[in-house]
Write a structure and sequence with these properties.
171 residues, alpha/beta, 14% helix, globular, disordered N terminus
Amino acid sequence: TRTFKKLEVECKLLGAKDITEEALRYFIKDGVFRIDELMHNFKMEYIPVNAFAFPKVHIFRLQTNTLPDNISNDILEELKIENTKLSILPDNFLFPNLKSLTIYGSPLEVIPDIIGECKKIEHLKLSGTFPSIPESLWDLPLKTLHLGTGMTQIPEGIGRLSSLEELKIEG
């Protein structure tokens, strides 16, 4: 309870903008940092900037529709964003060591080109209705690609995914 009290004080004082990493560790379960639990417990409206300072971050049932503008880091390897109101990713969405990205059950409207700069992504699962797929995706070392889209044909660039083992496109 001591750590919890400290976190509660930090949330009230800092308005969730910058909570210490030590306090954030309270919400790590099975090696995964759960942003949604932090925000729900303290009725936070914004995701703390340093919430992405862990190798695995999962966000479920989040009511905010944006991520912080300056969340890029070298630590994050797995990011799951599920059943949120997130409709757009920030322009500086850059995680050089990101290996797995899942955005599911969120009204994502555009796959930003910047995802192609996350050169280590092997598993990409995105739901949404996308008018197009950025060319930069076809140069990633993807092993798994799941796209929930309204596409009527398979994009030509998929043929460039030489490491692809699993492809799922929902129409």
